[in-house]
Amino acid sequence: MCARLNVNIDHVATVRQARRAPEPGVVAAAVACEHAGADGITIHLRGDRRHIQDEDLHLLRRMVMTYLNVEMAATEEMMKIALDAKPDCVTLVAENPNEITTEGGLDVRTNLSLVRAAVHRLREAGITTSLFIDPDVHQIESAHTVGAHQVELCTAVYAEATLGARGFHGEGAAHVAQELKRLREAAILASQYGLRVAAGHGLTYRNVGAVSAIEEITEFNIGHNIVARSIFVGLEQAVREMKEAIEKSSFQF
Ligand code: PXP
């Protein structure tokens, strides 16, 4: 079965916040994504509130009809917000105030007790809990140990590798193949542990197909490339094209 697509609409809010203006609205964006066939909406409520605001979360909680996934750091401030808003899913991520975007996976292994406590509180509240981790054996084992429902494998290194590669033959192709292998092995291991497997970060129309060929991956969280394309073709068309790219499961990039 084809993996689901949650559209990350953070950068709709980035454009709005550039002017502290009412438009473009994130609820309007979410409705358009759902209309175009998105299976869910993802937002990242960052500590510095650079794009998504607290009010956006509350409005989206009421308006999103499909599935709302909220990415956040496991801080006390964010935990309280999540437990109050009760999205369908919370994805715990590592957050560094100076980063341009999330730089890598959460180190579950070295923060075992903190992550375990956060997962426990979210699970108790009936919220699906996902951990954004690097495709690494130890992180997967730790995610299982702390009781997460799901892992989201960070595809950033794979995505970066595809930027310099031309198909499976040019320079950089070996690096791409190696990163795909890491993702595939991690996805298989996570699913053997009974974890649901998602993936995301840096995925594009060109490179998503090779990852969607990995059967164990049942969900994608994709934002920047969709919002970027929407400038030229509109958000609904941009979402439809990403759904098609996922369905194609092609090894071309
Ligand atoms: N998944 C996680 C955990 C993220 O932090 C992000 C970026 O906010 C994404 C997916 C989406 O990444 P991109 O915007 O590069 O598609």
Question: How would you characterize the overall build of this protein?
Answer:
Helices cover 47% and strands 16% of the residues. By secondary structure, it is α/β, with parallel strands linked by helices. It has one domain: Alpha-Beta Barrel (TIM Barrel). An eight-stranded parallel β-barrel has the order 1-2-3-4-5-6-7-8, surrounded by eight helices. The longest helix is centred in the C-terminal third of the chain and has 20 residues. The relative contact order is 0.14. Pyridoxine-5'-phosphate (PXP) binds next to strand 8 and helix 10.
Number of DSSP helices? 11
Quaternary state, please? single chain
Instruction: Report the CATH C-level class.
Output: Alpha Beta
Basic shape = globular
Q: Given the helix and strand composition, which structural class is it? A: alpha/beta
**CA distance, first residue to last residue:** 21 Å
Lateral arrangement of strands in the main beta sheet: 1-2-3-4-5-6-7-8
Largest sheet: 8 strands, parallel, barrel
Distinct bound molecules:
pyridoxine-5'-phosphate
pLDDT < 50 stretches: none
| Rounded radius of gyration (Å) | 17 Å
Q: What would CATH call the architecture?
A: Alpha-Beta Barrel
CATH topology: TIM Barrel
Helix content: 40-55%
Task: Name the CATH superfamily assignment.
Answer: Aldolase class I
Please count the beta strands (DSSP E, at least 2 residues each). 8
Question: Total domains, how many?
Answer: 1
